[in-house]
């Protein structure tokens, strides 16, 4: 089969890789219908994270081709959506809703690499969710989004306790930030402020439910949110960028006792303990437990209640993966869907 | 009146200071029955925080001597306990339970300085809580503890979501850590692990409800908690020290999706964003909103359900404040009560 390997920063190649096989009885092998490039794939692409002949890709939807003997909830022929973290969904941590910290957690990116034609998914029952039937083609991008960006944005909004009567501020107008806007709207937030300087993303954010746009950043961005919230700051803040400035902007925009959900932390971020202490806020972040939200998200997409697939603004064949990375790196595209 | 002024690091003096007067109609002037030295008073004492002729002390109980015209809930002659942060208890932030971040918040330490015979307390209704009557003398240390260390330890345990079925780990065996143990026990925690190397504090911790003692620190301390919790880490962790090692030990001891309550952050602490992100935990910290808990804590003390006053292991007259600081600095005392 064909699959993406990043040899070194900036060096993305589509190569012949061995066809995946069932190894453990809890495995499934799926034939991918769609995959994509994640904002986080740009970290190694830009040399910020280590990379060395790495199997890329961790977002995926597809059709189950084979299952191991122990697999119970997904069947050959099912259309499935999977989380970007493998989970058994039965351990104590999973049962508490933190499947991304499962005792059997494994990142799909780097070890499996779903920018490919096929993938072996361990703990298939605990990782994959079957859709009610084979989806109409126009639903595929939205289902693919559920695999990471939607699930991550949703987790961030939930972690920030977006909900009725609350003002939510979203730092980041990338795919995850936009999905957090959508999630905040679905969760019933009263007001949704987005930090954005890009007109096309502002428009998409508004279409997903944003009520206010702030173009300032850093301390000025914080001041703008305070001005919009009677001097108090937002009840709920989502951080979906991953830089030092963005994280501290998110801390500053959160009112005392408010909630910060962060999903974009990069290696450079170092949080002054005293600043976090003085803020007096709740925080929850980390790799999103997408599997917790998947059944609900799949249903909302199936019912056409939400349309997260619009976050993809470019579609390319898998063979042109290098072009997809380049387009995202140069911000010519927000998020690129790849067809295997 | 007499009161404590810290001229410079290590230079604690008891001096004549002007008698406090009502300035605003929401003020009360109280005659202090007891005050004490806080672990945080040792930061300036040791030169870690700036200090320059600073009015010291922020924990206090006493009898109301005068009230302004607008004061409604406390009366002249009442015995009162106050929070170490002034709050109006009516603003939106206060109503959400974060009185330490009140729009009128003011730290008592440094501006009022309750290591003194009297104190003017702004926003008396929002800051002070009257006891049901004048307390028996043996209740005074416990009521004084409610002013900060008990309230702070309680907030930390609550922030860590200590409760039934949960394993709580407490980093720090100082007064606040010990109070967090007491709080965790009262909140119904199933198991309470304390990091401690001091036999007397271990004994006090056990008497307050600790079930396990861990003497290791840092990564070894984390490993010990993991071993006690089936490899997962504690559900709830309290950080009550304020050093880099203690904070990261607390992060490491918290299971994925667990809750960290931190109340002891010092200036040196810098949290690597990626470490916090990877941990995937809830955090809540900052100056404790003691006022939220005060009515409940006063009642539990009044009913003799809890006995936090045992955390004081030395009592000195106010005039010997310098000796009190020295005893705590040299760890000859956990916490010193001063009688004005």
Question: What does this 3D model show about the protein?
Answer:
The structure is a homodimer. With about 350 residues, chain A is α/β, with parallel strands linked by helices. Chain A has two domains: about 1-150 and about 290-340, Medium-chain alcohol dehydrogenases, catalytic domain (Quinone Oxidoreductase, Chain A, domain 1, Alpha-Beta Complex); about 155-285, Rossmann fold (3-Layer(aba) Sandwich), CATH 3.40.50.720. In chain A, about 30% of the residues lie in helices and about 25% in strands. The first copy, chain A, has helices spanning about 40-45, 90-95, 110, 125, 140-145, 150-160, 175-185, 200-210, 220-230, 245-255, 275-280, 290-300, 320-330, and strands at about 1-10, 10-15, 30-35, 55, 60-65, 80, 85, 105, 120, 130, 165-170, 190-195, 210-215, 235-240, 255-260, 270, 280-285, 315, 335-340. The radius of gyration of chain A is 19 Å and the shape is globular. The model of chain A has no long low-confidence stretch (mean pLDDT about 95). Chains A, B: Pfam families: ADH_N, ADH_zinc_N. Chains A, B: One of its GO terms (molecular function) is zinc ion binding. Chains A, B: This is Threonine dehydrogenase and related Zn-dependent dehydrogenases.
